[in-house]
Amino acid sequence: MSASRFILIACAAWLAGCAGTPSGTAVRGDSPDDDRIPRLRSATDGELIETLLADYFRSLETPAVAAPAAAALPQRSGLSGEGIRVIAAGPAMGEKNGLWHYVGTRLALAHCGHAAVDAELAALRAKPGRVRGLAKRAEPFLHYLVGEAERRELPVDLVLVPMVESGYNPAAQSPKAAAGLWQLIPATGQRFGVEIAEDYDGRYDIHAATGAALSYFKHLRGRFGGDWLLALAAYNAGEGAVDSAIASNRAAGLSTDFWSLPLPAETRAYVPKVLALSRIIAEPERHGVRIDPVQGRPVLARVEIGSGVRPADVGAAAGVPEEVFKLLNPAMKSLSEAPRRKYRLMLPLKNAEVIAANFKGTEWVSATKIVVQKGETLAAIAKRHGVSATALAAWNGLSISSRLKTGQELLVYPA
Question: Are 196 and 75 in contact (CB under 8 A)?
Fold first, then answer.
């Protein structure tokens, strides 16, 4: 079955199972000049992500499905290999038991217990299909997000936050102006380097938004003395709300831990949801939840494109079905207009390989091999290359305490 045939079948099945639109998020693309994502309003966002996006990525791993093929492009497309850079999303991880097992064994918050967490856990256990569905929606992004968290030495529990924030919908939009996988509001996004312009909103850019959200979490970790429950609360309610709650309790001589603070009801429910998901992912069988295994190989690639090329032509050249392409790249206001500047797209890795194979001059950016000099340590090399020592060790099959030898070769993956 070809990839295009797959997407037609998936789209038909999706349309046949229409349900009401969920509250809290909306599928964008309502205005006539906004062609970022499908304008299919009658199904839930979750069904869209599961049926079109996750299933397409699964199809690429199925031997019976034909490899992606580039579409014929008009001469005016201007697309050539010159100015194109393809950056694969890091090394394989968790290959022996799968990526969810890899995540489950590294969760830092799975031990957190409280009656509120138990209540959320009971609600999720009563509907095991919900967790399984969220896990499936996460599949296309999981390897990339785990790698980005480890690169910054942040707990992998944070990859569960988009389950609560957006249901892993990269085009999610809330009534409170939060947007994207991580539901960033404009001020927070711009504070941590996200560009918001007339033709582009980086909060919907998977790479840019992930970088901003994880940078924000790193800031919150320091801001609240390494207390991840307070950091999660501040991500949801804002630093000011948590500061005010702490000040109020201190003035009253009360405890200032998360569970004791007078925070908004939404926040008091938000943190236990993340913690309950962490406990389930750590031990899914114990909680009666079956999560489909995910291979630990990278499945996403960033593709940097020079100015003057229509995003739609890049998607066609890579052989990506249109709806999948839109779901992966909702940050662009229009896919049919050529930006006047360099820009970045997210593609399935196998589709990015089609670009590299068919357009001479495409630069494929992969790991850099470095040679250890006398006296160098993992920590020193990691700092020089802007990555965490934990990530550098993992990329090279080492432990954080490994001693390096002069002349030893290490791989460093691009940020």
Answer: no
pLDDT band at residue 284 under the 50/70/90 scheme? very high
Candidate list 47, 139, 165, 323, residue with the active-site label: 165
For the chain, how many helices (H) and strands (E)? 17, 8
Q: Is residue 191 part of a domain?
A: yes
Q: Which residues pair with 343 in a beta bridge?
A: 305
Q: Is 165 annotated as catalytic?
A: yes
Phi-psi region of 94 (alpha: psi -120 to 50; beta: other; left: phi over 0): left
Q: What is the CA radius of gyration of the chain?
A: 22
63 Cβ contact partners less than 8 Å away, ≥ 6 residues apart: none
314 and 219 within one domain: no
Of 38-42, 100-104, 356-360, highest mean pLDDT: 100-104
More confident: 90 or 344: 344
Identify any residues that bridge with 364 across adjacent strands, giving them in sequence order: 86
User: Which strand (E) or helix (H) includes residue 57?
Assistant: helix 55-60
Is the same domain home to 157 and 173? yes
d(CA 105, CA 121): 19
Residue 295, judged by CB atoms within 10 A of its CB (0-12, 13-18, 19+), counts as middle
In the chain, what is the straight-line distance between the N-terminal and C-terminal CA atoms, in Å? 35
Alpha-carbon distance of 178 to 270, in angstroms, equals 15
Query: How many domains would you assign to the chain?
Result: 3
For the stretch 217-251, pLDDT in tens is 999 999 999 999 999 999 999 999 999 999 999 99
DSSP one-letter code for 51: I
Q: Residue 41's CB: how many other CB atoms inside 10 A?
A: 11
